[in-house]
Amino acid sequence: MLEQADISDIELKQRWRLYWINCIFDFSSLKFQELSWVNNSEKWPSSFAECNAAYFDNLGLYQGYVKAIEAGNVSQEEADKASLFHDLANFYDEPSTDPKDILKDEEWLEVVAAAKDLWDYLKATLKEPREVECIEKLEKEFS
């Protein structure tokens, strides 16, 4: 039988992963970015800065995926698949604070394309029911 602490650890890892999946989606969907960053959707409030902070700060990924792997939050394969997106997002320098300028920027479109590649990989490989449900829900909302 699992101890309560073990259950909590499992739940914390699952919550981290669901938050990570949401962050990857936010980076991969120009439709989401336009709705939330440009149109200021009340249902999906976000901005370029919030998107970055959610991924890099809240998930603790500024230094890459080493700690996330050590904590068991992601596999080495997932981290390897995330590396191009991560590097492009980490070194992206927005042309202005206007979200319309960001969404037209060729370098930003490279970040989005790399995030979409990672998203497609996750969609094809994740099997945990809560993760699959999260992916399906996000895609349904923004398709």
The number of helical segments is 8
Amino-to-carboxy terminus distance = 42 Å
Order of helices and strands: HHHHHHHH
Number of domains: 1
Structure summary, number of beta strands: 0
As an assembly, this protein is single chain
Q: Residue share in helices?
A: over 70%
Radius of gyration, CA atoms, in whole angstroms? 16 Å
Query: What structural class do the secondary elements suggest?
Result: mainly alpha
Q: What is the average per-residue confidence, as pLDDT, rounded to a whole number?
A: 92
**What portion of residues belong to β-strands?**
under 5%
Q: Which stretches are poorly predicted, pLDDT < 50 over at least 5 residues?
A: none
Mass-distribution shape: globular
Q: Report the sheet with the most strands, covering strand number, pairing sense and barrel closure.
A: none
Task: Explain what this protein looks like in three dimensions.
The protein is mainly alpha-helical and 143 residues long. It has one domain (26-141). Helices cover 73% and strands 0% of the residues. It has 8 helices and no strands. Helix 1 runs parallel beside helix 8.
Notable characteristics:
single chain; 143 residues; mainly alpha; 8 helices
Describe the secondary-structure layout.
Blueprint: H1 4-28, H2 30-38, H3 48-58, H4 66-70, H5 76-91, H6 99-104, H7 106-125, H8 129-141
Helix pairs in contact: 1-7, 1-8, 5-7
